[in-house]
Structure formats: structure tokens, C-alpha cells
Amino acid sequence: MKRVFLIVLDSCGVGELPDAADFGDEGSFTLRSAATDPSFSMPNMEKLGLFHIDGVYGAVNANGLGKTTRKTFKGSVCKLAERSKGKDTTTGHWEISGIVSESPMPTFPDGFPKELIDELSRRTGRGILCNKPYSGTDVIRDYGKEQLETGNLIVYTSADSVLQIAAHDQLIPTEQLYEYCKIAREICQGEWGVGRVIARPFTGEWPYTRTALRHDYSLVPPPTMLNVLSEAGYAVHSVGKIIDIFAESGITEYVRTQNNAEGIERTLEEMDKDFEGLCFTNLVDFDMQYGHRNDVPGYAKALTYFDSKLPEMLSKLRDEDVLMVTADHGCDPATPSTDHSREYIPLVAFGKPVAAGKNFGTRQCFADIAQTILAYFGVKNRLAGEKIEGMLK
């Protein structure tokens, strides 16, 4: 009974891509930045080969932490470049799953057009505040009081292809906010087709705090690895926001989570289940809580915590199980920017079917992950990418 557990450390990039300057991301290296904090420790990922990925060992060791690396390691590794024209969550996950986005999803650096805002206001029956790029924590600090006083919705964006709606849960219950976001998703199609509409409920007294009940509403993707597997009769389980990133398409069972710790626990529970197919997990805190907030110590501690849970995951692997750990883009917490960064992503694979101690260099498409997984299950497809020959026995 073959199972693949694919875990995305959301935003844990491993160095700038050659076109990073086109995105304003020169010098970005998320993992290196996290490793500058004294709390950073990933001995278990080191054993599997993380620091053997091209360019990673030198970058991490250069931080003066006195690290050494083994000459041998237990897993297979590589790093992958993004072919799609973007650096956002949706684009990254879709490419991991076999879809290359040739055109970038629309962004709105000057705010959304009046026609879109007017339609959203008409259909929700509420006025609109802000309508410009903003930090998620700053926007509720600056507009939260007015939102409570007027009942208007805080609508904002970022450098990514997103429309975000924030409201205080005392005035607008979270379920109602979700309904408003569904309306926004219906409006945001075509030239307004942002990758995600995101509900951002907040609570408490000024300066307010965001709750853990964010909800993403993505565009429906073309058929992906998830559809190919489920249509071939395999299970496709999702943990965390995977269900939202893929607009539920191709997923046979799911559980949403509120943080990394819960995401790891739910994944451990999935490992105790009997199924044949894929379990796809997203651990969002690296990005949402630490990358976007330029919190280097927080990012380092989150990676250290993940690494501390890895032995428990490895102990649950069965003879035909494969564990893959990757990312979807970067979000360097040490650069001035609070946005995603255009970076390579890592791939670390482990399990009895995985070739031990192999470095497959630098790959040219995230979708090589999809092709490698689909080849393991023996499923033919027409998705992008190439199988990583020799990674899986």
C-alpha cells in the first residue's frame, strides 16, 4: 500500500532565483536568514540531507553557528526553480502539482478598480475601507476602529495576487465574513481574477489581533496531480489550507488547521490511517506568522519545532511510504520586504523506496515533484515537469 506524505514548509525558500531582481528580491534566502538565530537547530533534517542541497550548507554555515555536515545522509535531495510567473502561494502549490502558470495572476499595487469595489459594496450592502496594499496587522491597527464604528469592510491587497477582507468578529460574525468573501470570489474573475480572496477576522480591543480563522478562496485550478490521482482511484488527503488553495478540486478527504502544531498533529494522525495515495500538508505559520512579519527568531523556532517532530513522523513510515518536505516560495524574514520572495524551493525525500544519499542537483520546475509522485503510483498524465529519475526505487 503506497502512501506519499508531501509537507510544504510554507515560504521556506533556499536562495534567490536567477530572475529574483525582476521581482525586487535580490539577496533573498529564507532558510539562511532563519539560521542566523541562535535558536535554529535542524539536526534531523540535516540527517536526511537538507544541508546537502546545492548552496545550502555554505550559506547556513557562513552564519558562524559552527555547524558541520555529514559526508553521507539518509535521504534524497534537490532544489527546484519556479517556471511559473509568480511567487505566491497559489502559483507555487499549483506548480508543485503539475500546473505551470505562464501568465502571472493579476496584482493591484494601486488598489482595486472602482468598478470592482462598487460591485462588492452593492452585493454585500456594506461600504469599503482602505482599498490599497497594506500589512495585515497594520491595516487593522489603522482602520479597525473605523470598521467597528461604521460596519464597513476593510478591503486590502499586497504584492501578491490577493484580495483580503478584514472585519471585527464582534460586529461581523466570522461565518458572515466568509459569505462576503465568497461574493468577492464570484466577482474576482477574468481580469480581476486574483489567486486568492482571503477572510481576515480580527478580535479584541484596539490595536486588535487577528484570529486563527482565516479562510482562503482560490481560483479553481486546471486538473492537477490531485485530480489525476483521485480519478485513478487513489486517496488524496489534505491537511491545512491545501483544501482552499485547490478550491477542493481533486481532494477526497481534508482537515483544516489553525497553526503549524495542529498541522503536524493532524499529519501524524493521517500516518496512522490505512489508505493508498497522497497526503498533502501545508504548514502556514512560517509564512503568515514569521516571514511576513520579518520575525527571524520566530521563523527559526518554528523550523526547530518542525525538526523536533520529525522523528515521530519517521517512526510512522511504513515500508512503501515516502515522506517529502518542500516549500512553495520564499518569504525572507531578514530583508526589508514583508512580501514573498522569488526563491528556489528545497525537496528532501525519505523512506524505504527512496534512494539514500543522493543529491539530484538543481531542477528547472516545481512540477518535477508531481511527476515523481505520479510515477511512483504508476499513473500516466499530461502535466508539466519531469520525473526525478532515480529518486524513488
What descriptors fit this protein?
single chain; alpha/beta; Alpha-Beta Plaits; 2 domains
Strand-helix topology:
Blueprint: E1 3-9, H1 30-34, H2 43-48, H3 56-61, E2 76-80, H4 89-96, H5 114-124, E3 128-133, H6 136-150, E4 153-157, E5 162-168, H7 174-187, E6 196-203, E7 209-210, E8 215-218, H8 225-231, E9 235-239, H9 242-245, E10 253-255, H10 260-271, E11 277-283, H11 285-291, H12 296-315, E12 321-326, E13 345-350, E14 358-363, H13 368-377
Helix pairs in contact: 5-7, 10-12, 11-12
Describe this structure in words.
The chain is α/β, with parallel strands linked by helices and 393 residues long. The protein has two domains: 3-102 and 219-377, Alkaline Phosphatase, subunit A (3-Layer(aba) Sandwich); 114-213, Alpha-Beta Plaits (2-Layer Sandwich). 32% of the residues lie in helices and 20% in strands. The chain contains 13 helices and 14 strands. The strands form two sheets. An eight-stranded mixed sheet has the order 10-9-11-1-12-13-2-14, with helices on both faces. α5 crosses α7, α10 (260-271) runs parallel beside α12 and α11 (285-291) runs antiparallel to α12 (296-315). The longest helix has 20 residues, at 296-315. The protein is globular. The model has no long low-confidence stretch (mean pLDDT 96).
